[in-house]
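INTERNAL AUDIT FORM
Audit reference: QA-55
Scope: verify that the stored structure record matches its stored sequence.
Auditor: D.O.
Record contents follow.
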Amino acid sequence: MIKLNLLPPPEREKLRQNKSLRFLFRTCLALTGIFLSYFVLLLVLWFFIGAEAKIFQQELESAENLFERSSLRSLQEQILRINKKTEAALEIQQNQLYFSKLVEEVSALTPAQIKLTSVSIAKGGKETKAEETLFLVVQGFSPKREFFQAFQKSLEDSDFFLKIESPLSNFLSQTDLTFRLEAEINREKIKL
């Protein structure tokens, strides 16, 4: 195929330059449009991500506050449970009776001539508000009635006992006396 160009060469050159300029203009316009669209898209994404970040930050702070409050509440509950257990242990310790003090007192009050065959503690039938009455039951042997009477008198004079009950059978014999006594224990004296 033959191409005929009837335009003079300077005009042809001008047309070719115009065509090239139009192509360059369209390409620049298209690239500018693409860059502007990309910039607008980035701007929208930046605002959207910023808003999401603020919402996420608020939710995170809310969750942290909730966690701190629940942790604090959990610690407070644990502290209350420990305090209750400690109070219960202290109450038990305060109401603890130390019978070793009672044994020491009975041992100190017993004359050398008297032999104790049985020493026991019994709960009485009378109940006070929170405690039952405790009795010391002592059985033994005395070679003479005078030794037994001195032992009974020393128990009556002791602060560890509130009252002493001695049956009449304890006084029937002058010598070789087998006796039994019940003494109400003063709880305050055997507490710590």
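Auditor finding: record pair retrieved intact. Strands lie at 115-127, 132-144, 161-165, 175-185.
Action required: none
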